[in-house]
Amino acid sequence: MIPTLEDVRAAAARIQGIAVRTPLLRNDTLDARTGARVFVKAECLQRGGAFKMRGAANAIAALALEVRAKGVIAFSSGNHAIAVSTAASHFGIQATIVMPSDAPRIKLEMTRVNGAEVVTYDRVNESREAIGARLSAERGAALIKPFDDAFVIAGQGTTGLEVSEEITPDIVFVPASGGGLAAGVALALPQARIVVVEPDGHDDIARSLAAGVLQRNAQGIRSICDGLLTEQMGDLPFAIAQRRFECAVAVSDDAARRAMAFAFRHLKIVLEPSGAASLAALLEGAIDVQGLTVVIIASGGNVDAETFALALAAQ
Amino acid sequence: MIPTLEDVRAAAARIQGIAVRTPLLRNDTLDARTGARVFVKAECLQRGGAFKMRGAANAIAALALEVRAKGVIAFSSGNHAIAVSTAASHFGIQATIVMPSDAPRIKLEMTRVNGAEVVTYDRVNESREAIGARLSAERGAALIKPFDDAFVIAGQGTTGLEVSEEITPDIVFVPASGGGLAAGVALALPQARIVVVEPDGHDDIARSLAAGVLQRNAQGIRSICDGLLTEQMGDLPFAIAQRRFECAVAVSDDAARRAMAFAFRHLKIVLEPSGAASLAALLEGAIDVQGLTVVIIASGGNVDAETFALALAAQ
User: Fold this and answer.
1) B313–A301: do the CB atoms touch at under 8 Å?
2) In chain A, whose CA is at the least distance from the CA of B106?
3) Which of B188, B223, B171 is nearest to B51 (CA)?
4) pLDDT tens digits, one per residue of B205-221
């Protein structure tokens, strides 16, 4: 079932006290440079350092009590892992998390710190979906999908719902890969133009929108945006995307680094490469925003110190 | 005249639309590590990157129109400079700023970008107060003092007023040097214990509180906390300090760096060394906070990329 704005509202009630309301940041330099009124929704300040807490909390909270008691399982490149493990710990249940062995160290550590069992796999040669499904069957634990789930999409949509309670944006820039966040935000802001941002060379969403049919990325494509490397978008997000996404724009690794440095220098927030992708698209002038009220979803901030320092040094 | 809570309330009304309300951030790791309920007041997310915007905006807004029209002058190691130049630009008046030649580059640049004229001086051999007073006399511009002014103290106090509108803290950690912020916060939170934090070896406030008379720092003491190197506290802040400050604790450069790295890793905010001093005092266990509701005033985030990267690398 495709979720609706009502589901997003229900999610907001369900996740209260687990996820937090994040601020909308303003910056004079950003406004001057773009000619727009820009609001940065700082999801790096979300519990667990990324928006993923919203969807995970909603999905787990919506489980029947006897199902929830058996624990949950998730596969994730990082931020969904942290979110599911944190939400599971909130509900006092066991979490098993399947993560690629090359995930950023900080994401592996933040997942383990919440008491989750972490199972690593080889991103190139193994399928996380298959491993997740097998473990789920063996343990009887509910699989909390990272994006192709109505409760997860509705949970991520609360990001947009909070925006709508403060301002009425003309246009929203959202990073997308599985598409759960972008789809949820589109539901929450039915009047806004939705521009999604993906890494250069990993442009399945742009191609899917053009083809009208889900396209897949070639395996093994690398990008500094480690949170945006899903093989293909989910079916549910795509159904929403076809009705609501205006377009998908691509950003380079260097543009992501420049945006991280801009956020450091002017906004004083820490963004991981994927979390800076939407800001990168704005700063690179991907879309004319002159005179508009713009929202940038800065989706997360879980980045290793080395990667961050390199991004600052590159400027 | 020593300002009061009423002056802080008046300041809040005056600076609306110039300064912004900053969020109170929570973090699971911080709570677990300290055994307290910790709220971080993220003044690095303030306009201009530091709390100083509050006091500068209040002082300039309170000037009579004919006085204000002649422009303003300020002397500052950095964040007060940025704040006065930004507030002056908001009111459409000229600002002249006297800054030490060794101020962090980012602070010099952020001051110039607002159209202010920057006059540099040698921190060791020249007196910024004397230069400021001379320029003020020559130009007829009003001097906006950095801390020893009732309007500035009341403006900085709005930081605490915002805290009081959300929670009732038992104890507040505030960085202090001139003492304007700490004094203002003390006014705004009359029931809270106030612990101020200063750099190691620059402990004039601890000595002043012990002596009951203002003490002075030796010239030329160095610290990574470039915003906390005032020669001595102001008379007005000291009058409030004697009634309200519980104690002053000192933090080392390394402790400040560790706190910057903690804020990067867990809070996802950028703190300059001075802005991290209060968090450093908490993390070093300077005061027993077990079971308490604690507020950390994280006062600013204007730090050069090199200094920031070194702080992260030191961990």
Assistant:
1) no
2) A265
3) B188
4) 999 999 999 999 998 88
